[in-house]
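JOB MANIFEST
job_type = single_chain_structure
chain_count = 1
residues = 330
[input]
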Amino acid sequence: MTDHFDVLAIGNAIVDVLASADDDFLTSQAIEKGCMRLISAEEATALYAAMPPGREISGGSAANTTAGIAALGGRAAFIGRVSDDQLGRVFAHDIRASGVDYRTPAASGGRPTGQCLIIVTPDAQRTMNTYLGSCQELDEMDVDEALVKAAAITYFEGYLWDPPAPIRAIRKASAIARAAGRKVAMTLSDVFCVEGHRADFLHLLESGQVDLLFANENEAKSLFRTDDVAVAVDGLAALAPLAVVTRSGKGAVVVSGSERAAVPVTPAARVLDTTGAGDLFAAGFLTGYTQGRMLKDCAIMGTIAAAEVIEHYGARPEADLVARVQARLG
């Protein structure tokens, strides 16, 4: 029998390769600073060869969120496709070692495991160059029905909403979750995802297929084609039963109908790498939500987790998040 899980996440299974470099390196590679772009296998090979020495850390947006949930004492599971290669084995080991239930079989043959080549500049900005590889081969056959039914929330990332196969997987998992009386959560992931799939994302909200939406303010503004974050927040309030908009240094806003709750950021001891801040915010919020906490406290838990992850390189928590939450909220 499948155990109960607080959150089941579906997302890209990726290994991050992080390297520190200055702005001149980005210029030399004709890469826009701070962007998140998709690259081909050939581009990935060339950029990896040009990068300074780096470190490999398992990543992927939704996978990072599950690692954060586990670090906060929650029970999390993850569905995502890797290949039977070196990076695939690294990913599977790391996510299981973090306490996340991961059962998706590795693919033999086909494209290699996805990787994200991340350049971190001295100002802690990260520039992400992603080769999705086998991530894009995730399909509905990878969705474990019992696992979905066992999770209070099924959470998926907008990054997956592109090739037909992962979309089928998300639709299947969402349908199973809703039929079982479970909730469905989504993160918009990035402005480029919103710009490419605005109509689909709006339809998901308008048709009531998403119970909880995460977005940063730029993604929210892009979704409603506005420069006014207040207009975007009002738009989300009208469509989503619950939405959370993160605003970088301005904290976050939680909206549920006419209810609004704004929280400031939790200060970080130092800022080394902002990779994964949004992923860990979602981890904190979802953990608090499944614990039945007040929405404002859920958002505070999100800021605590986000603050921790930007204090070091990589998008997985390294400090005792439970202790930090207890010290703040009890």
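[summary]
The first strand starts at residue 5 and ends at 10.
The radius of gyration is 18 Å.
exit_status = 0
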